[in-house]
Amino acid sequence: MWEIITTSLPQLIVAGIKYTVPLSLISFALGLILALITALVRISQKGKEFKIIKGIFNFYVWLFRSTPLLVQLFIVYFGLPYLVIPGILDEGIKLTPFVAGVITFSLNTGAYASETIRAAITSVPQGQWEAASSIGMTRSQTLRRIILPQAIYLSVPPLANSFISLVKDTSLAATITIVEMFEVSQQIAAENYQPLIMYSLVALIYAVFCSLLTIGQHYLEKHSHKHLTKTVGGA
User: Fold this and answer.
1) Contact criterion met (CB below 8 Å) for 225 and 217
2) What is the rounded distance in angstroms from the CA atom of residue 33 to the CA atom of residue 37?
3) pLDDT in tens, 177-228
4) Which residues constitute the domain of residue 102?
5) How far apart are CA 182 and CA 46, in angstroms?
6) Of the chain's two ends, which shows fewer C-beta atoms within 10 Å, N or C?
């Protein structure tokens, strides 16, 4: 058993560094950008002509929050090549496994994180909007200078949880042939016929990764709480 572990562990760690970590970081970064845009659009109070745009973003959030991540991966990687539009997409949309994974995980993360950011923004007391307006600040200035800084720090704990969940969810990328840790464990298990050992080993590696991220999350929460206390106290 120890021989299997010592020979397999380096391969799993390399796969994690090469695919799992980049896939998680890139997808989360893109997802956060999309989440912020989505949240701002959905809380916007612009006129009737903006309702169509808000409706599109509302539909996007509903769609990705209402369907399984695994199904989303299959649609993007296996389904889009069959989206043939004569004269425009004669061969459909063919993506590499990694690109398909990044797109899917980013869209999924963006939908969930947008709700976190939107809730954080709306949780800031209405009085702060009114106070800023009374001194001549526009709504966009108030949002940028007063509301968003507070909302960001309020969002840290739930967003950190989202990132930890994303790291675990990247194991689903094995279904579209991305050679991340779980896929490598499956390949090795098919060779040595020791699935229990291999799957337990990869589970342990995920547990270590997530435990380290949890420690980082606690540090961020403490830092954000202190900063938020100073911000509110100073206000």
Assistant:
1) no
2) 6
3) 898 999 999 999 999 888 999 999 999 999 999 999 999 888 887 776 665 5
4) 2-234
5) 46
6) N
The string of DSSP codes covering 30-64 is HHHHHHHHHHHHHH----GGGHHHHHHHHHHHHHH
Q: How far apart are CA 175 and CA 78, in angstroms?
A: 10
Taking 90 as the threshold, does the pLDDT of residue 144 lie above it? no
pLDDT per residue as tens digits for the range 95-110: 999 999 999 999 999 9
Query: What is d(CA 166, CA 121) in angstroms, rounded to the nearest whole number?
Result: 23
Q: What is the average pLDDT across 76-87? A: 91
Each residue of 178-207: b (16+ CB within 10 Å) or e?
A: bbbbbbbbeebbeeeebeebbeebbeebbe
> How many separate domains does the chain show?
1
The 10s digit of each residue's pLDDT in 40-81 is 999 887 767 788 899 999 999 999 999 999 999 999 999 999
Distances (CA, A) of 166 to 34, 105, 128, 132: 15, 8, 34, 37
Residue 136 φ/ψ region, left for φ over 0, alpha for ψ in the -120 to 50 degree band, beta for the rest: left
Q: What residues contact 5, with CB distance under 8 A and at least 6 apart?
A: 197, 201
